[in-house]
Amino acid sequence: MAPFKILITDNLAPEGIAILEKEDDIAVDLKIGIAPDELRACIGNYDAIITRSGTSITADLLANPGRLKIIGRAGVGLDNIDLEAASIKGIIVMNAPTGNTIAATELTMGMMLAAARKIPAANSSLKRSEWDRKRFMGRQLYGKTLGIIGLGRIGGSVAARAKAFGMKVIAYDPYIKKSRADGLGVTLCEQLEELLTHSDFITVHTPKTGETIDLITAREFALMKDGVVVVNCARGGIINEDDLCDAVRGGKVFAAAVDVFGNEPLRQHPLLELDNVFVTPHIGANTFEGQEGVAVIIARQVINALRGKAYENAVNIPYMRSQLPEEMQLYFDLAESMGRLLAQIARGRPEVVELLMVGPKFKEDFGERVFDIPFSFQPFTVAGLKGFLERNLQETVSFINAPYLAKERDIKVQEAKISSYERYNDLFLLRIRTDAEEHLVGGTVFADRVPRVLFVDQFHLEMIASGRYLYFKNIDKPGIVGRVGTVLGRHQINIAGFNLSRIKGGKAVSFVSLDNEVPEAVLQELVALDGLLEAKIVSL
Ligand code: 9EZ
Q: What are the tens digits of pLDDT across the range 418-430?
């Protein structure tokens, strides 16, 4: 078997490299610290690349991705990877978010204690041969309220340890379930303000998103208790650095501990001048155990992904067909087929693609929320879009890149859920609008578990949503279907099934399934028949 080639460009813990090297179908190249130009020249020769934070994977590097399919990040942060560029090329980006949890948690606890007791300052003082005990009066954690902003993996892990210190723990996180907070023994705040006004210690554990940059500014500091201790070991800029300086100088904040900065490496900043601000150079993930953890995890994940087994911790796949409930997989396939059908009957430049999901079945949210990508659609919408786009675009359209390709082309993608439509219980309605026309296709999955198209525009049918069909539209008058049959028969093309639908006053459409291919010349012959408006082969 042709081996998969993996390039490693940053120092990966040896345990991870060993896992890759012992596989027979994997060949590993180490090019630690490779220059961008050199990397651009060779990146396309590899099936996967594994980095830490030292290698920038830019759009420029991915312009000609060759055989590259996977980018693995041994760690969490993806600041160094152009996720949109990778997604557009259909390259899967995966990280190892669990490997570092304990490392980040323990630094947070250490920083909180260091700030509360001013341990680093006391250490420096004594090493200057001072013996000044009065200067280092601190605050206890015991009995105090810790406010955790962002109760994900790390926030939850910090909560457990804070409780062991006898703290009351409250949290704010609009994206977690109350049951998670309950399970952790944490009181969930409805509003950030509530957390700010009640906490003696505050620590942030959110990703960096548009919503969390400058989450804590002068306005938020003003709401805090006097003498609060503030910690940021998450991402630079969640707590506004200038406003933190003011809050420390003004005495609102007793002490602050910061591991991460908006602009790294941080060389000069007013924060570095303040006695009650304690800083570390982004070392949250830097433990031997943490680095081993992320290396082992990313190595295993990349191997599985290359072998097509699983895409664990892929950050640019919002869902996987295989993870949908079985019935929903059929609807997923239906939506894709409906998209393909529309692509083959529509003329003009696409402007809008819209999926309307009808019925109580679709009430649930079937996508996963991926915070690193700028849109989140239900899987069915992306399937419909992918089916629609792949017909007409030169590029490879995938479930990853379909929304990006639509955005690039200024195609508006919309989805909606409604409880009922006409007489249908469960129905997908896929609508497209181009600069020339509009089409609506409806489909469903009956109890026989076969996806079917039920109507195309105003024509009602009941057509299995897979395979190849001869599609034709004609003026509704006697003899036409017969003539079509005659032409097909003359060319030894056998009809396997016939779906015909007509509307009052005039036209009919047919989808004919055939046992044989229809040569282009036969199609021309059909189109030339009297009363035939159009004829083409569509494959669903
Ligand atoms: C935002 C968040 C938590 C948060 C948590 C996650 C994307 N995201 N954002 C604001 N996973 C607290 C406040």
A: 998 888 889 999 9
